[in-house]
Specification:
This protein is mostly helical. The protein has one domain. Helix 6 runs antiparallel to helix 9 and helix 6 packs parallel to helix 10. The longest helix has 31 residues. It is globular and about 60 Å long.
Amino acid sequence: MTTLTATRALTSLHARELLRDHRYFWFALFFPYGMLGVFLLIGSVLPAGGGGPDFNQIVIPMALFLAVTSAALTLTAGPLAAMRSKGTLRLLGTTPVGRARLLFTHMSVRVVMIICQTGVLLGIATALGAVPAANLLPLFGITVLGMALFGSIGYLIGGRLSSPDAATNLGTLVQLAALFLGGLTFPLHLLPAAVGRTLGYLPTSFYADLMQTQLPTGRPMHPFWLSVLVIVCTTAVFAVLAVRTFKWDQDEPR
């Protein structure tokens, strides 16, 4: 079997496993759309200029954020740990697959899912007039960067933990921390100066900062190029760690 054929077969295997994984797949698929509806409802109920956050402005970036983090963290760390606990990874470890190819094919299925979700969300945003046409391409590019960043974190978590529940819970914790402490949901400039500055230097905050650049009233803390550079470098570090520390078996030494 050639390398290309083996890669295709492994990708097909991961796609089937993803579709059969009802515990994680359906949640990650529909959760962003559910939250999109919730925030649109909140935005329609709240009076304009009431002093609260303008949900009509942040709803699409929030939905994109949730789509990326749900697939890259929840739908990655938990299922990968489950494959280890079932012994699937141990069997794959006896083949010439290799860690890098396994993680690449596993992630490629998630990438397709996130791209489809992003396309639908941006289509909804266009139909609602919530996002200017000039912002569609930047938002797509930012989503791709987020996919790489949070995906590398998800594989670092799933590549080490043996318990699917522990991996899922840790991935969810990272998702919530990035969501609420990154400045997208709650502006960091409203926090005490020292706290806001400290949180602003987290890699996940640089990603939220990129989303801020696409909001009419966004207040990014860092230059666009610096945020991109930090995300790319952080992704590279986490990706290398994910491959080098990956465990095939539960009993493999830490």
